[in-house]
Amino acid sequence: MSSPRQGKNIDFDIISAIATRDAAVEDIVRELRNRGVKSLEDLLDMMRQAVARRDDSAKATPDPVDFKKFSVGADYKPRRDIFYNVPEIPVLVDGVMFDPKDIKRFDGQELHFIAARDRQSMIAIADRAVMGKWWEMTYVTSLTSSASSAPRALASHFSFPEPAVIYYEDDQFGGSIISHGKNRGFYDLTQHKTSIFGHSWNDRISSLQLVNLTICVLHWDIHWQGATMTFQASTPSSPEGPPSYPVDWEPSLRPYGWNDQASSVEGW
Questions:
Q1: Residues 209, 245: one domain?
Q2: Residues 124 and 257 in one domain
Q3: Whether the Cβ atoms of residue 251 and residue 173 lie closer than 8 Å to each other
Q4: Helices marked H in 78-229 — which ranges?
Q5: Of 23, 58, 197, 264, which alpha carbon lies 20 to 30 A from 135's?
Q6: Shortest CA distance to 268 belongs to which of 24, 77, 64, 98?
Q7: pTM score > 0.90 for this model?
Q8: What angle do CA 253, 256, 261 make, to 5 degrees?
Q9: Does the pLDDT of residue 202 top 80, yes or no?
Q10: Closest by Cα among 261, 246, 254 to 209
Q11: Number of structural domains, the chain?
């Protein structure tokens, strides 16, 4: 985890500010000068380099998910310096339902959360080994499941979207985006940028979408470590329509206390 992201009045996307007129001309000029831009040539060169970095990031292949890492050894040491944000929904821990504010009782204890499908509550598991077994089961299930339960003859007439998890910088699927496919993830979000001016994706994910993919896991730390938040996609029923595929749209991570918290992500 890094420190919370800076306020919009300090750490803002200059291009967006220009387009939406959210900043005064003198503010934009001052920010450009702070970034070493003293001429039009400097600005064009900065934009060229930034676009190149963004293209490289988009083309980079994230690390593949390795189900073997779901298992933890007896020497596994859970992270203790964890302080949770208070969620907006209750949390079920060891069979006991806690009010949102009571999550602070678990500060210093590594928890692994699973969102209920109705978004009205969460389950929290304190044992990473137990959580790992569940991930392993869902991973194997995803390998044996097709994109649709429809018969092959029917499904062949329809085109399914490529499996992906799409992460957004802002609530309601706004701001910059970053995405990966099935059985992939971002091992270290500090190495990926949200905008052409190079802000790190670390601690910046605020909403997400799962499309034709089953599971998405947000990790508190880089290297897929620390506390976690898991979301599950479900397949809508469409007996009279085209074949369906798994989806889950999370317009805000605030209800779960996970806004701007993830440092690595993965999905399968």
A1: yes
A2: yes
A3: yes
A4: 128-144, 152-155
A5: 58
A6: 64
A7: no
A8: 60
A9: yes
A10: 246
A11: 2
**Phi and psi of 224, rounded to 5°?**
55, 50
Do 29 and 84 lie in one domain? The reply is no
Domain residues for the domain of 107 are 63-267
Length of the chain: 268
DSSP 71: S
Q: How many CA atoms lie within 13 A of 244 on its CB side?
A: 13
Domain containing 224 — which CATH number?
2.60.20.10
The closest alpha carbon to 181, from 61, 262, 53, belongs to: 61
Which bin fits 94, alpha (ψ -120 to 50), beta or left (φ > 0)?
Answer: left
Cross-strand partners of 170: 174
Query: To the nearest whole number, what is the mean pLDDT of the chain?
Result: 82
Reduce the DSSP state of residue 143 to 3 states and report it: helix
Q: In the numeric block, which tokens belong to residue 55?
A: 């293209």
Assess contact for 268 and 65: CB atoms under 8 A.
Answer: yes
Summarize pLDDT for 184-195 with one digit per residue, the tens: 999 999 998 877
Express the helix, strand and coil content of the chain in percent, nearest 5 each.
30, 25, 45
Q: Are the beta carbons of 207 and 248 closer than 8 angstroms? A: no
